[in-house]
Amino acid sequence: MADQENVRSGLPLGWEVRRSNTKNLPYYFHPQTKDSRWEPPAGTDPDKLKEYMASHHSSKGISAANFSVPGKIRCAHLLVKHRDSRRPASWRESKITRSVQEARTAIEEHEKNIQTGNVTLPELATTESDCSSARKGGDLGFFGKGDMQKEFEDAAFQLEPGQMSGIVSTASGLHLIQRLE
After folding, report:
1. How many angstroms separate the Cα of 73 from the Cα of each of 118, 126, 141, 149?
2. Please, are residues 99 and 82 in contact by the beta-carbon 8 Å criterion?
3. 3.20.20.80, 3.40.50.720, 3.10.20.310, 3.10.50.40: CATH of 73-179
4. Eight-state DSSP code of residue 106
5. How far apart (Å, rounded) are the C-alpha atoms in residues 170 and 148?
6. Of 134, 165, 171, 178, which one's alpha carbon is 20 to 30 angstroms from that of 5?
7. Which SUPFAM superfamilies does the UniProt entry name for this protein (predicted)?
């Protein structure tokens, strides 16, 4: 049974996906070695893991706590990095080689899918975002002025709750930002 699960998930033999009780987030665990980690272990098939996580661990939206923090907003985002990003690597790819234009084409497609209602930003961020916040549906939590890169912050603070930005370019890559609170 565990072997079949590894074939479906793309994880190396012995590894499994579990859900954290405290953070309600998926993590990777090896029962024999008791090793646990937030990032996939070496030898993971990223395409199979992406498909597995989308079907087994994707949120159908972000379940936000019903509170706010004065002077701060809460956003989720989807990040597509390119080879000129300040750190051209992610949980999905150890070395990102796509051009800026290829990244723009990819994020434009994501934007179109969100706008047509085929998928939500949190659902898409879970499998497509190059940010580690992907495991939380892109949720960055609360942040205030001066906490994020200027271009990101400027776009985020202009949004009303529930509203999504257009494509925002920063040193990290290309973003779609959704204001949650």
Report:
1. 26, 21, 8, 15
2. yes
3. 3.10.50.40
4. H
5. 10
6. 134
7. FKBP-like, WW domain
Residues forming a β-bridge with 30: 35
Residues with catalytic roles? 77, 131, 149, 172, 175
pTM: 0.64
Do residues 114 and 166 touch, judged by C-beta distance below 8 A?
no
Residue 1 CB burial class (10 angstroms; 0-12, 13-18, ≥19): exposed
Query: What DSSP designation does 167 have?
Result: -
pLDDT in tens, 111-154: 999 999 989 999 999 999 999 899 899 999 888 888 899 999 99
| Percentage of the chain modeled with pLDDT above 90 | 51
